[in-house]
């Protein structure tokens, strides 16, 4: 073992000499690995970034939350036409549910409307205006950068007040506070009583609270939507994550009663959960991951073939040198170690450079799209590059190791 | 005491469908501190004999005993170990590593012998001093003259303190004057108690040795002591 370590150390030193002696060739060879490792690392950080964005976006929904809705959100267990034919969930349904439900920590009805918000010359389009009650805030993890949510009196009285998401507030009030100003939604004035803190998840789009506004639910029905045509979503928050299933079971029972379903009729509502969304997202990200790594893996593979090619040329070109080394006592294993470590070092150097390039590029890309690098990516890149070197160097090294010293010495 | 004892060895090469008998039946004994020249025209088998003596190749038939070890039965790794410890090679074309300096070239056999870095450097330095190249240690072969390159090669052969020095046409690529210097160096080495085997086809080079073995067609034609050995004047570099 000690003997082998000595050989390995000397093999590495000899390889370093050889690499330094053939600078141009080594640089060109390294290039393939640089590109390969850079693209693999870059791809994996991009995928990780996308995944993180999804996860934080989804978790903003809250893991303890259920959403009772006419529509099934993520799965397709129920055919579309069947869901379309369901009766709307009404505010009256919600009130009955709220009365009967014992387990939830908080419940709130929501109904949304796509509107344009205006303040003086500023306006923002396609904003999800959520109509809800004062309880809504208890079903979420939202924080305020200023102001507050509407209270029970304002909610029940259908006062003309609103709470803005951070993006909306930023766009309508580029300078100064939004608080106590009146914004116009479809010509109706609403006083801003609160602005949410930034949630910062780009993937959720309009579902991101940053891009939403909140008003008492009656106002939606009064100004924007007829109550008859709009189904209400009931947000339910369980007291803790262990209780989620119990809350769900209770909700199914109550909703069936409320909706007057007979025992043989199937549910005409769906209970949606973050988990279902997570499952869908994980599947999607998984596919992206495999496809992305496969494609970038190909470039690494091409780099590895480049290394193998160069090492074969190198062995041929250095036949005489191998002959000399063998004549003065290098064993087969010594030559093998020397050439494999040469390939491994070239790959390792390439891998390091590739890693640095990937980090720089991902920092640049991070300005536009989320990327995320962690220590695993570093270790993986280094392990992969050494492995690539060892694998692609083995065949040429083996050829070198079994050269006949007499023949090799005669080679010119 | 015999260092080398060869009995009835033969070497047969397969070239296409033809068998080439490079050595037919050769027996030689070489003692410690002998200075032997192996002579013969091309095709006589002297290169093959040198490869066998140098443990670069094994005979097809016969026995090769090197200091009590049966070389004819050895595998690649055992041969490499014998070459490393017991034999110092000096080639016609020097065979130095072109991209390494003199010191590293001389150090190389010690690396394969598993000697530690600091001891290696010290011994390589001493060997280079012995051949008169103390001031050229960090020169690469292309920065050295032919004679200097051969001195580096000789230092490399000496550094492991081998049982025999095997020189294959060591003056073949040198002019007469430089060749004479190299032969003087060999004489110094011989006088220090080393065993030297010299392969050459030049009569006047062979006469530096104390014994000449003449080969022809794969057989020993003559094996005789040199009566009037040519002793070059002191080289001076070895002091």
Q: Care to give the gist of this entry?
A:
With about 400 residues, chain A is of the alpha+beta class. Chain A has helices at about 1-20, 25-60, 80-85, 90-100, 150-155, 165-170, 215-225, 245-260, 275-315, 320-325, 330-365, 375-400, 405-410; strands at about 65-70, 105-120, 120-130, 145, 160-165, 180-185, 190-195, 210-215, 235, 270-275. Helices cover about 55% and strands about 15% of the residues of chain A.
What does this structure look like?
- In chain A, helix 11 packs antiparallel against helix 12.
- Chain A has helices at 2-21, 23-59, 80-84, 91-100, 152-157, 166-172, 217-224, 244-259, 274-317, 319-327, 332-365, 375-401, 405-410, and strands spanning 65-69, 106-119, 122-132, 144-147, 161-164, 182-185, 188-196, 212-216, 233-237, 270-273.
- Chain A has 412 residues and is an alpha+beta fold.
- Helices cover 56% and strands 16% of the residues of chain A.
- In chain B, 32% of the residues lie in helices and 29% in strands.
- In chain B, helix 3 (102-112) crosses helix 4 (117-130) and helix 5 packs parallel to helix 6.
- The longest helix of chain B is centred in the C-terminal third of the chain and has 16 residues, at 176-191.
- Chain B is an alpha/beta fold and 239 residues long.
- Chain B is globular, with a radius of gyration of 18 Å.
- Chain B has one domain: P-loop containing nucleotide triphosphate hydrolases (Rossmann fold), CATH 3.40.50.300.
- Chain B has a six-stranded mixed β-sheet with strand order 6-7-8-3-9-10, with helices on both faces.
- The interface between A and B is medium-sized, with 25 and 27 residues.
């Amino acid at each position: 073992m000690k003997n082998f370590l000595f050989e390995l150390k000397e093999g590495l030193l000899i390889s370093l000499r050889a690499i330094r002696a053939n600078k141009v060739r080594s640089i060109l060879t390294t290039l393939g690995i640089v590109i390969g490792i850079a693209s693999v690392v870059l791809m994996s950080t991009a995928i990780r970034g996308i995944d993180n964005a999804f996860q934080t976006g989804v978790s903003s929904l809250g893991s303890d939350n259920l959403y009772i809705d006419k529509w099934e959100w993520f799965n397709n267990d129920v055919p579309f036409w069947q869901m379309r034919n369901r009766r709307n969930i009404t505010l009256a349904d919600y009130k009955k549910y709220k009365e009967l439900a014992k387990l939830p920590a908080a419940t709130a009805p929501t109904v949304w409307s796509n509107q344009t918000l205006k303040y003086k010359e500023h306006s923002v389009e396609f904003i999800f205006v959520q109509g809800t009650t004062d309880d809504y805030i208890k079903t979420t993890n939202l924080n305020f950068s200023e102001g507050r949510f509407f209270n029970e009196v304002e909610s029940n009285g259908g006062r003309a007040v609103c709470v803005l998401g951070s993006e909306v507030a930023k766009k309508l009030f580029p300078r100064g506070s939004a608080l106590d100003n009146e914004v116009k939604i479809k010509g109706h004035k609403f006083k801003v009583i609160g602005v949410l803190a930034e949630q910062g998840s780009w993937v959720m789009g309009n579902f991101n609270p940053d891009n939403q506004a909140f008003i008492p639910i009656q106002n939606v029905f009064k100004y924007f939507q007829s109550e008859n045509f709009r189904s209400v979503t009931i947000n339910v928050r369980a007291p803790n994550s262990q209780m989620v299933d119990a809350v769900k079971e209770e909700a199914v029972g109550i909703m069936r009663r409320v909706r007057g379903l007979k025992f043989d009729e199937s549910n005409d509502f769906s209970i949606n959960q973050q988990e279902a969304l997570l499952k869908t997202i994980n599947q999607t990200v998984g596919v992206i991951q495999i496809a992305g790594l496969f494609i970038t893996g190909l470039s690494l593979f091409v780099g590895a073939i480049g290394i193998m090619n160069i090492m074969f040329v190198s062995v041929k070109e250095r036949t005489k040198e191998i002959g000399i080394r063998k004549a003065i006592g290098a064993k087969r294993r010594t030559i093998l170690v020397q050439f494999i470590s040469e390939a491994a070092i070239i790959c390792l150097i390439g891998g390091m450079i590739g890693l640095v390039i990937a980090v720089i590029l991902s920092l640049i890309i991070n300005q536009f799209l989320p990327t995320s690098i962690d220590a695993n990516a570093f270790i993986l890149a280094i392990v992969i590059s050494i492995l690539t070197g060892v694998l692609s160097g083995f065949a040429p090294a083996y050829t070198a190791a079994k050269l006949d010293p007499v023949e090799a010495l005669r080679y010119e | 005491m015999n260092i080398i004892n060869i009995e009835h060895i033969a070497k047969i090469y397969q070239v296409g469908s033809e068998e080439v008998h490079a050595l037919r039946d050769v027996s030689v004994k070489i003692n410690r501190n002998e200075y032997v020249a192996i002579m013969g025209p091309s095709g006589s088998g002297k290169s093959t004999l040198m490869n066998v003596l140098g443990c670069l190749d094994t005979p097809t038939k016969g026995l090769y005993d090197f200091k009590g070890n049966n070389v004819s039965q050895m595998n690649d790794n055992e041969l490499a170990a014998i070459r490393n410890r017991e034999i110092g090679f000096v080639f016609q074309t020097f065979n130095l590593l072109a991209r390494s300096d003199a010191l590293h070239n001389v150090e190389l056999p010690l690396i394969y012998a598993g000697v530690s870095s600091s001891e290696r450097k010290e011994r390589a330095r001493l060997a280079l001093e012995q051949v008169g190249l103390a001031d050229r240690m960090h020169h690469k072969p292309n920065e050295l003259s032919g004679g200097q390159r051969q001195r580096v090669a000789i230092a490399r052969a000496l550094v492991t303190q081998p049982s025999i020095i095997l020189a294959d046409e060591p003056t073949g690529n040198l002019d007469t004057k430089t060749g004479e210097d190299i032969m003087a160096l060999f004489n110094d080495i011989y006088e220090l108690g080393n065993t030297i085997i010299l392969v050459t086809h030049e009569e006047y080079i062979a006469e530096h040795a104390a014994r000449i073995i003449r080969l022809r067609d794969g057989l020993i034609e003559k094996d005789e002591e040199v009566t009037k050995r040519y002793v070059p004047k002191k080289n001076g570099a070895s002091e």
